[in-house]
Amino acid sequence: MELPKFLLGDNTDFPDDIFVIHLDYPRFIINLNDDEVEFMEEPEDLDEAELNAEMEGLIVQANEFYDREMERYEKE
Length: 76
Fold this sequence. Notes:
Radius of gyration: 13 Å
Order of helices and strands: EEEEH
Helix content: 25-40%
Largest sheet: 4 strands, antiparallel
Strand content: 25-35%
């Protein structure tokens, strides 16, 4: 089975929050409400500077993914 790079998630215990789950390495969940990131695994092969640079790009991609998904949802 091929998995998508990002998934959207929500939870009734957190009704104001929208989560984007990143399934590629490094796996993480970002809360789009406050941009808090929770890693599901610690990226061991990246130093802090590399990780920060990579995460900046991934957060931008996560936000773009969410925007595209919302556009598609609104069209339907």
